[in-house]
Amino acid sequence: MLIPHPWDEVVLGGYTVLNFAVNGVAQSLDAPTAQSTPQYRFWFRLVNYVALNSKRANSTTIEQSPNFVPAAEAYMQQRLKDAGRADVADKLKVVTSNG
Fold first, then answer.
1. How far is CA 95 from CA 67, 71, 78, 80, in A?
2. What is the DSSP string of the chain?
3. Domain map of the chain by residue range?
4. Torsion angle of C-alpha atoms 41, 47, 48, 54, degrees rounded to 10
5. Tell me, what's the pLDDT at 39?
6. Predicted local distance difference test score (pLDDT) of residue 97
7. Contacts made by residues 52-57, CB under 8 angstroms, sequence distance 24+
8. Residue 23 burial class via C-beta count within 10 angstroms: exposed 0-12, middle 13-18, buried 19 and up
9. Cα(54)–Cα(16) distance, rounded to whole angstroms?
């Protein structure tokens, strides 16, 4: 028979509070992009693993691709042109283009 120890509740409660705090920090971090430094990618993954967000820590492969921003820009421009808003699509290019 397992006899509960008083410290069991303290440890479990402390871990719950720590996880809640780390999870709040992890959710506030922006996902790494192709322009993010290796240090930021490392800390992003570490904080998300500690917060038990391993799915979020590993889900940045698309955003790390070098053509993510240009592909998203082209997609949005085409959608705007299809909706008859070519003027807005041209403005979008000025705002989001790196080159």
1. 17, 14, 16, 15
2. -PPPPHHHHHHHHHHHHHHHHHHHHHHHSPPP-TTS-HHHHHHHHHHHHHTT-HHHHH--TTTTSTTHHHHHHHHHHHHHHHTT-HHHHHHHHHHH---
3. 6-58, 67-99
4. 90
5. 92
6. 46
7. 52/19, 52/23, 53/23, 53/26, 53/27, 56/26, 56/31
8. middle
9. 17
Residue 20 in tokens: 């809640």
Looking up tokens 């921003």 gives: 69
Q: pLDDT of the chain along its 99 residues, tens only?
A: 566 777 788 888 888 888 788 787 887 888 777 777 889 888 888 888 888 777 777 775 555 566 667 777 778 778 888 888 877 777 765 444 454
- At position 41, the amino acid (one-letter code) is R
Question: Which single residue is written with the structure tokens 């070098």?
Answer: 66
